[in-house]
Design a protein that fits this description.
This protein is of the alpha/beta class. Helices cover 37% and strands 23% of the residues. The strands form 2 sheets. Strands 7-8-9-4-10-11 form a 6-stranded mixed β-sheet, sandwiched between helices. Bound molecules: adenosine-5'-triphosphate. The site of adenosine-5'-triphosphate has 12 residues, from β2 and α1. It comes from Actinocorallia aurantiaca.
Amino acid sequence: MPLLETRGVTVRFGGNTAVDQVSIGAEEGRITGLIGPNGAGKTTLFNTITGLQKPTEGRVLIDGTDITKLPPAKRAKLGLARTFQQLELFLSLSVRDNVKVAGDILRATTRKRIDIDKETDRILELTGLADVADRDVSDIPTGRARVVEVARALMTSPRVLLLDEPASGQTEQETEAFAGLLSGLADDGLAICLVEHDLPLVMKLCATIHVLDYGAVIASGTPQEIQRSPEVIAAYIGTEEVA
Ligand SMILES: Nc1ncnc2c1ncn2[C@@H]1O[C@H](COP(=O)(O)OP(=O)(O)OP(=O)(O)O)[C@@H](O)[C@H]1O
């Protein structure tokens, strides 16, 4: 059973169906890709999973529990974390403090006993940010700021991590290191759901890929299956082949 599941999720904005009957899952220890052209509904689906957007129809489940009506904070407590397409960081705080603040919130809202400074150091080391820990986020390249968002999400000890275009703004070298980080996190058991326009990265990392077009899933499968799918090739107009 997938750890995270959407069942028949539909989101309508007036007459526009942004998400259309989407049923997908993300499994523990796996990276699941979600790709599709601009406006296909990827971010709206993420917003529905995390509770920022109410679905018109359908359900969201974690570990078999229906969370459709839970507010975002309760979903976070069940192990859901995300990053945003537009970076949502405190620019005038250091990298360390941006990560640490998630631990402070966690401590204030749960009874978990955690040594926040120690955990912050562990996460900074794990994500390869130790060398820039004391710099303000505004002083580091965008590509590394994307990793700070992931590090902050990891501070909440998630079971499911949703990443919205995490590699955008990264250099080739940064993306390579980032791919290693995501693989390692999945190997440790995290369920990762990845929205990303960098198709070679998606093809390299994901066990399963779902392709959205006009809100609907038009193909699901392994990277090899997706690359061969005529529907997918047609959806990426002007592209001879995917990736
Ligand atoms: N709050 C909103 N109100 C009205 N329409 C919206 C809203 N949010 C998204 N939409 C519309 O829903 C559709 C899906 O948008 P969404 O941002 O989810 O796509 P996306 O696949 O994430 O695109 P991108 O790759 O460009 O980020 C688009 O037609 C968009 O204009």
